[in-house]
Amino acid sequence: MDYANRKRPAPRKPAKKTKKAAARPAVSWWVVLLAIVLVTGFVWLLVTISGQSKKVAVESPPAVETPAVQPQQQPALPEKPEERWQYIEELENQEVIVDVPEREVGPPKLMQCGSFRNRADAEELRAMIAMLGLESQVRTTEGSNGVWHRVILGPYEGRRAAEADRHKLQRGKINGCQIWNWNL
């Protein structure tokens, strides 16, 4: 459709007003009368309130005059004594001795990240761990239920170091690593 060459719509003709609507006033006379009464009442209220505040001030009893009395001399206050705090000097000369127990060093911590039947699967996980910058080992163990290839990291001196490496592995999307107290 071509809007540029389209014909303009014909202008609308205004509706004709009837004589009844034009003859009737927009506001009825009783609304005007009510507004005048309300404004007059409000003005009268304001005038009466303002006049009462002046009457109250005028009606207050006159002040009683007291005979002039010579002011007595107040006794001189003693000088403020110098405060001397002893605890400041006592604290400066004190030494606090705290007994901190030595942390017990337990067995070394090892972190196991997987246990596989196939050595190829264990080597694949070891390669993924190496890509994250950590060194791991694959240990083969034989038990009553067959041969297992475990992927382990460590040994760590404390749990905090093992937790730090586990967080690195979790950021690299390797989950499920567990920290154990294992002896080598």
Automatic annotation (TrEMBL):
The chain crosses the membrane at residues 21-47. Keywords: Cell cycle, Cell division, Membrane, Transmembrane, Transmembrane helix. GO terms for molecular function: peptidoglycan binding. GO terms for biological process: cell division. PROSITE patterns: SPOR. It comes from the Bacteria. Coiled coil: none annotated. InterPro entries: Cell_div_SPOR-domain, SPOR-like_dom, SPOR-like_sf. It holds the Pfam family SPOR. SUPFAM superfamilies: Sporulation related repeat (SSF110997). The keyword Cell cycle applies. The keyword Ribosomal protein does not apply. Residues 103-184 form the SPOR domain. This is Cell division protein FtsN.
